[in-house]
Design brief:
Layout: E1 7-11, H1 15-25, E2 31-35, H2 38-43, E3 51-55, H3 63-72, E4 79-84, H4 89-98, E5 102-105, H5 110-161, H6 167-180, E6 184-191, E7 194-199, H7 206-215, E8 221-224, E9 227-232, E10 235-240, H8 247-327, H9 331-375
């Protein structure tokens, strides 16, 4: 309950009835005000009554009309208990339709009246508790929705970070994510001797770089006033202008930023490894290309040698036949020399046939490697 006394309006054109009711209410800590008309009651609503004991049968503006005007003017929090000498069904329905909360007969016993007031007080307290519970539930739901949205930003950043192939791209993505969190940040990313600096709305000044260098000497997570510094491998992040009055929000931000900062560090390590693997792959590709070029040169040279050797063998055969004329050899000697030359030619051709098979296989390998180089 509020520290303010429970305020009750007693509205009745009968002064004796007002006196009786007010007397019954004395001694219980209630603040009681009397009015002889509905108009007087309406004019005093700035006194913020909790309960109105309202007579139905009054001259001029009766109790039903007074209650209807109260509800029309949005005094929905005020409870109204109608008081009437009539308790027939028609009267009760009219009281309900006018917006009443309860009904009590005139000249009711004191204990009945007090019990009705207690019920009104209990109803107001229950309503207050329900409003508090509703407010808490709404706040909890809003916090959960906010946390869910923030978690979505974290997950989106982690997914997008895998597409970043440089510190510059990763830093820009980080700045954009911090903007979505509504944070003003200074960021330093570093690896393998390379350093990149970022801030939310412009390039980092030399002073801000010095601040980041100082922040890098602090602990893993350090907060001073509205400033929060995080240090993880390969990253220093400094957020400023935080809402320190919202402890729950601060706790969520620390958790989210820690996950993001650690993810940045891991991504930078992965980028370094990817660069190393890419350099190794490029070196292997260069070696393969050099080998392919060498094999192609050997293949071309072998083809030229084979063509030249064929020409030399044929030229040698012609020269041998021409020489036979001047040597005056017998037929058997000529045949014997021809046989020697033919055997030599056959042996050489056999060797070249084997070499040709190897050359064809080598040519196939060269073409496959060239195809791989074109698609790499």
């Amino acid at each position: 309950m509020s520290d303010r006394p429970f305020c009750i309006f007693v509205v009745d054109d009968d002064s004796l009835q007002r006196l009786i009711v007010s007397d019954h209410l004395q001694g219980h800590g209630y603040q009681v005000h009397e009015f002889d008309s509905g108009a007087g009651c309406l004019a005093a609503m700035d006194l913020r009554p909790n309960l109105i004991l309202l007579d139905i049968e009054m001259p001029g503006q009766n109790g039903l009309d007074t209650c209807r005007q109260l509800r029309a003017e949005n005094y929905d929090e005020v409870q109204v208990i109608f008081v009437s000498a009539h308790d027939d069904l028609e009267t009760l329905l009219a009281a309900f339709e006018a917006g009443g909360n309860d009904f009590i007969p005139k000249n009711a016993a004191k204990d009945v009246l007090l019990r009705k007031v207690e019920i009104a007080i209990e109803a107001e307290e229950q309503k207050r508790q329900l409003q508090q519970q509703l407010s808490y539930a709404q706040k909890t739901a809003f916090t959960a929705m906010s946390s869910l949205g923030e978690t979505g930003l974290v997950l989106q950043f982690l997914r997008s970070s895998f597409q970043c192939l440089s510190l510059q791209a990763l830093g820009q993505l980080l700045v954009e994510t911090m903007d979505q969190f509504g944070l003003h940040v200074l960021i330093k990313l570093h690896c393998a001797g390379q350093e990149c600096f970022f801030r939310s709305d412009a390039n980092c000044t030399e002073l801000e770089k010095s601040i980041l260098s100082y922040a890098a000497k602090l602990g893993r997570i350090s907060q001073t006033g509205d400033r929060l510094a995080l240090n993880y491998p390969n990253i220093t992040l400094l957020a400023t202008g935080l809402d320190v009055e919202d402890a729950e929000l601060m706790g969520r931000l620390r958790d989210h930023l820690a996950i993001i900062a650690e993810g940045v560090g891991v991504r930078i390590d992965a980028m370094v490894m990817e660069q190393e693997r890419l350099q190794q792959a490029n070196a292997r590709m260069a070696g393969v290309k050099e080998l392919v070029d060498l094999i192609a040169e050997i293949e071309a040279n072998q083809a030229r040698n084979y063509s030249q050797l064929e020409h030399l063998i044929e030229q040698h055969r012609i020269e041998m036949e021409d020489a036979f004329v001047f040597l005056a050899l017998t037929d058997s000697q000529e045949l014997q020399l021809h046989a020697i030359v033919d055997r030599l030619v056959t042996q050489v051709e056999t060797l070249f046939v084997k070499d040709n098979h190897l050359a064809l296989r080598l040519h196939g390998i060269v073409e496959k490697q060239r195809q791989l180089l074109r698609t790499a």
